[in-house]
Amino acid sequence: QTYPGSGPQGSGPRESGCRRLAVSGISDGVGSRRIVWQPLEAVGNGMPAPLVSVVGAVLAATTGAVRDGGAGLVRDGGAVGNGRGCRQDGPQLNRTSFAGDNIVHANIPTAALCASYCCGTPGCTAYTHTTHYPWRWRGAVDAPLDLLGRGGIQNCTHNGPCCFLKSSAGKRQPLANCTSGTVTKPAPPTPPTPPRGNGSCTTPRDCHFGGDCVDRACKCDPAWTGVACERLHLLPARLGSGYPTHPATAALPSTSPFPWGGAVVLDPNRTNGFAYHGFFTEYLNHCPMTYGTWSTSTVVRHAGSHQPDGPWTALDVVIPAAAGNPVVARAPDGMWLLYFTNHRWRGAAARNCTGPVAGWGPPVYCGKTAGQCPTGVSLAYSPSLAGPWSVEYDVLNFSCTNPGAPVFTADGSLLMAYKAWADGGKGIGVVTAPSWRAWPYHTFPVGNHTPDSFIGVAAKLEDPSNLWIDRRGAIHMLFHEAAWGGASASGDGGSTWDYRTARVVYNYSIPFEDGSALDCTHREEPKVLLDADGRAPVLLITQCIVPSQLPLTRRTPQYPGGEAQFLTRIIMQPINTL
Fold first, then answer.
1. Strand pairing of 461-462 and 475-481?
2. What percent of the chain stands above pLDDT 70?
3. Which of 204, 31, 43, 33 is nearest to 110 (CA)?
4. What is the full DSSP assignment across 423-436?
5. Which long-range contacts link 219-225 to residues 24+ away (Cβ below 8 Å)?
6. Is the whole-model pTM more than 0.90?
7. Do residues 403 and 327 lie in contact, with contact meaning Cβ atoms separated by under 8 Å?
8. DSSP state letter for 383
9. Is the pLDDT of residue 371 over 60?
10. What pLDDT does 191 receive?
């Protein structure tokens, strides 16, 4: 693990309690893996020191230091297995290759390490290792990224070793200098049943409005868990779910868009033949996400799916640059409402990232400094999710971002959340209006857009989700706070809110059905898909920054040293309904 105070590439001292070893060059950008620093002689295989940085994640795996099932393989009577139960089945298939179905290829020195890498990679069921890679690499020179965005493993070089990870073991073909095999991963362990209530209570507020107070004990709704129903009851995500359907998995440049948050709704009319419709922020021209270009280089993309978590078919661009933070609700009159943050960008065109990285132009920023342009919340509305959409800008006409899709009362009035800035950090506030057409929305249920009007203020409090009203009439919202997801609820129609800064509703680790996990460096922009009645959440949609080693942007006056770029994915994780 990488600890504060360690030098570049981990060459500095470690915290007490860990082995004090000075090993340079082991990659720390490997997603869900937990690297334990090893002396070079522990690696074995006669590998020269430069290869440590190339396959640092796999080398750590050989010592059993990988959490997600990629621990080192050991031979056992013709089969290979590891301490987590992943096995390489049968004898090695020498001089044989599986054609197609590649997930990623990487410069891995041995077949055993290749099998270990397959064990630790979601979706990998087979591999082929060659000692003499017969092709010359043509394209980007950056380190490739696997399905989880783990970087730092070099592309295969001509006549060097190469490991191909594959999603199937079909189409066997003879090929010299190859060793191939399959792996069998254990069924994911049944997670322990989390406590669902039994915390002491006197009212539903003591149960975070996530359950009832029965006989002075919390009884949680299916979507909530924890002693006091404080956490979402999340289930493992499906491999391949989320947006985009085919995320960047190899070396940049990528033909896959880089998203930044989105919302999903159920469409009873099955517009365009899709039961589910998503609205996602995308960075233009296949460029990686950067914070500084958010106000110049983003659009809102409409997509459709037959399942709530994908696969997704990209449809039209609903809101042109620059637009983000889309949330969707349906008004009592049947109109679809798409709220978004917008800065009607009319400046230079966004850079293009479809060619080699060296040819990318400098990012386009708003203004002469690195600060964001002034923003507000705007609204697009249409009787159909297929459009056409009419747009009303600045329905919230003060400095704010991150709208939370509204809920409506019986008389058609709405209540909607937003993020703004306040003394002490960022605050989440709530506005009301007599109808969705009564813009600008300027009636605040608490105070008059002063610090007292926020339901909470904290250094990193942001990103309110869509609001929803549960079966007992309580209003809920999620948000991003520091290094976790939080939530708040109101039992009196939005006048007062139960906000507790230490409440952790979800964390940054996302489990998958095969037992692997993805640890996001940031997990932001929470939204929920509601059930057909609109009363209970069934899917958590969050924006994940995937650990990676993307290069900095070109230098600009706003960022003289270049700005960080991020590999991003929208993750969709089921919520318990039973």
1. antiparallel
2. 73
3. 43
4. TTEEEEEEEEESST
5. 220/196, 221/470, 221/471, 221/536, 222/536, 222/576, 222/577, 222/578, 223/536, 223/537, 223/538, 223/575, 223/576, 223/577, 224/196, 225/194, 225/195, 225/196, 225/576
6. no
7. yes
8. S
9. no
10. 56
